[in-house]
Design a protein that fits this description.
- By secondary structure, the protein is mostly beta strands.
- Helix content is about 10%, strand content about 30%.
- It is built from four helices and 20 strands.
- The longest helix has 17 residues, at about 1-20.
């Protein structure tokens, strides 16, 4: 009996290896619980760990900013710190003075971000460490839609060198203060964006961006400075259109890149479907599940949660090896000072099946809100 039991165990293990995704599922650790960060005037956030400290970056609304209201005050970007993702979080402090000069236009950032009411959004801090120049410098990216819609229709993105992970950032700051209008070929547009770290040791991060109009997703590799692109990447990821709020990560167990996004795009929505796409390579092979049938919704199988826990997907962050979906719990108003941020752990488990096979479809991702 012991021999038979051992043989049975061995056969089951071998069978698991032959079933796509079975080994990946077995290697997964239990997921941590979702949590909400509230009471901070930080929105469209990024949560990152540098050293032993966690940093929450976001747009601020408390000075009275209202979306698409002309000459609205723009409150700038802030950062809070904490010893753990659950807090306690410090009082937000600005990453740079919103009244200072926008080097691209020679107007103030107040004019750039508040003049038309289009705002400036998506503060994203990256560190030039383990890739490119590998000198540990912090770089703040954000988008300013007016640069695209009014000011010469250049791309809307900006990159500032920072003194530390908590700022300050921009020209005149010591050390490493700088400003650069990124040179971008594939992400030469305007819209929400995020970064995906390379799964290859020493590989550079990639900018994943939405383009105006069709709101397609493109991906472009950063240059050695982390303040521009290299014209290496992919356009119209998985053929997606009318999506936004992208973010992604490399899954070392499944050996795939996983990308999430709001599907469809909308403004300050309190409930938006979230979809996904995957690829074996950062710059090729992206796919998202299709659908079949008369008047079948295109996102019918790629959406893995219908309301994103009552919010809108913003981006993905990886903390201590665990990917998290960041969700804005919007109030649906032009001023979102009181809106909270929700984080849900992600785990990718490959799921067999194609549209029209007549089988039950279980998406490989889920949100345990």
């Amino acid at each position: 009996m012991p021999v038979r039991h051992a043989l049975t165990t061995l056969l089951l293990a071998l069978a698991a290896l032959l079933v796509p995704g079975a080994g990946a599922a077995a290697a997964r650790a239990p997921l941590p619980p979702a949590f909400t960060i509230s009471g901070l005037d930080l929105h469209d956030t990024q949560l990152a760990r540098f050293g032993d400290t966690y940093y929450l970056y976001g747009s601020m609304y408390g000075c009275g900013y209202e979306w698409y209201v002309a000459d609205t005050p723009w409150c700038g970007f802030g950062v809070s710190t904490a010893p753990s993702p659950q807090g306690p979080w410090s009082t937000p402090r600005p990453l740079f003075d919103p009244t200072t000069v926008d080097p691209w236009t020679d107007d103030s950032w107040q004019v750039t971000c508040g003049g038309t009411g289009q705002g400036c959004f998506n503060p994203r801090m990256i560190r030039r460490s383990g890739w490119g120049r590998d000198d540990g410098v912090f770089i703040l990216w954000f988008n300013s839609p007016r640069h695209y819609t009014v000011d010469n229709r250049t791309n809307a993105y900006n990159a500032m060198g920072c003194a530390s992970a908590a700022g300050p950032c921009g020209p005149g700051v010591t050390p490493n203060g700088s400003y650069n209008k990124p040179t971008l070929k594939i992400c030469a547009g305007n819209g929400d964006f995020g970064f995906i770290a390379s799964g290859t040791p020493g590989g550079r991060p990639a900018l994943v961006c939405t383009l105006p109009g069709a709101a397609q997703l493109n991906i472009e590799e950063l240059d050695q400075w982390g303040s521009g692109g290299r014209a290496v990447g992919v356009r119209q990821v998985a053929g997606l259109r009318n999506v936004e709020g992208p973010g992604g990560y490399w899954d070392p167990v499944a050996r795939r890149y996983v990308l999430t996004y709001a599907d469809p795009a909308c403004g300050y929505c309190a409930g938006t479907p979230i979809g996904y796409a995957t690829a074996p390579s950062l710059y090729s092979g992206w796919t998202a599940p299709g659908n079949v049938g008369w008047s079948a919704p295109l996102n019918g199988r790629r959406v893995f949660n219908g309301n994103s826990c009552g919010g809108q997907p913003r981006t993905v962050t990886v903390l201590d090896g665990q990917p998290w979906q960041i969700i804005d719990l919007w109030l649906g108003t032009r001023n979102e000072t009181a809106a909270a941020t929700h984080l849900v752990p992600l785990s990718y488990t490959p799921s067999p099946g194609v549209a029209g096979d007549g089988r039950v479809w279980r998406p490989p991702l889920a949100l345990a809100c």
